[in-house]
Structure formats: structure tokens, C-alpha cells
């Protein structure tokens, strides 16, 4: 059910991200379309990101694809959401310089993040 679009990446990284996602069963679109579900962004302030936000898409960092590939399954987007995404709980300002994942899910205890 994932139809993804990439924004802000150059080859060879762009091709690697696309191949990894398609290998996991996602569909790829070069531009945001009515059936797109996820925008994988290098930067959350691109024209594609603005369009995806307007249309209720999920904006995630590239770590989402790499971690899905590493585990061999689709992981929840929550820890990878970028500001301004439809499901982001932030106000959409101030974290554009943060590396993905920009918004890790809150967890109890210290050291709950990825290794």
C-alpha cells in the first residue's frame, strides 16, 4: 500500500533508495500524484514536500527505507516523520536541519533509540 515519491536526493543515492523501496514492495512515482502515500525527503522544505503536506501525505526521512530494508518489513512511520507531515505532532517549524529521523517516537527510559 506504499506509493512513494523521493525529494532532494541525487544519484546514486536516489536510485538506491528507489530500488530498496521497490524491492520491499512499494510503488514509486517521480512526482506526487493522487495515489501517493509517502514522500521520502532529504529536506522537508521542498516544493514536493509542500504539495505532499497539502494533500495529507506522510513525510519521512530516508532512514525509514533503510531500516525497513534492514528488518525486511514495513516499519511504523512515526519515528521517521519530518515536521509538517500529516501525522506529525509538531508545529512544523524549527527542525529542518535535524538529521532523519527528525522526530523519534517518545519512549520510556534512556537509550531507547536505534543503535
Automatic annotation (TrEMBL):
Q: Name one GO cellular component term.
A: nucleus
Q: Which Gene3D superfamilies does this one have?
A: BRCT domain
A GO term (biological process) for this protein?
base-excision repair
The UniProt regions of compositional bias labelled Low complexity, in chain numbering, are 83-92
Residue ranges constituting the BRCT domain according to the UniProt record: 1-82
Region described as Disordered: spans on this chain = 79-115
- Return the protein name: XRCC1 protein
Q: Which organism is it from?
A: Struthidea cinerea
Amino acid at each position: 500500500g506504499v506509493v512513494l515519491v523521493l525529494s532532494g536526493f541525487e544519484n546514486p543515492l536516489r536510485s538506491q533508495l528507489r530500488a530498496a523501496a521497490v524491492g520491499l514492495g512499494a510503488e514509486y512515482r517521480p512526482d506526487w500524484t493522487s495515489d501517493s502515500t509517502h514522500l521520502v525527503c532529504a529536506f522537508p522544505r521542498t516544493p514536493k514536500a509542500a504539495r505532499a503536506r497539502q494533500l495529507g501525505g506522510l513525510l519521512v526521512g530516508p532512514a525509514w527505507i533503510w531500516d525497513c530494508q534492514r528488518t525486511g518489513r514495513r516499519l511504523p512511520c512515526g519515528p521517521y516523520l519530518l515536521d509538517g507531515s500529516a501525522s506529525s505532532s509538531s508545529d512544523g517549524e524549527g527542525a529542518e536541519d535535524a538529521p532523519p529521523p527528525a522526530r523519534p517516537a517518545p519512549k520510556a527510559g534512556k537509550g531507547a533509540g536505534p543503535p
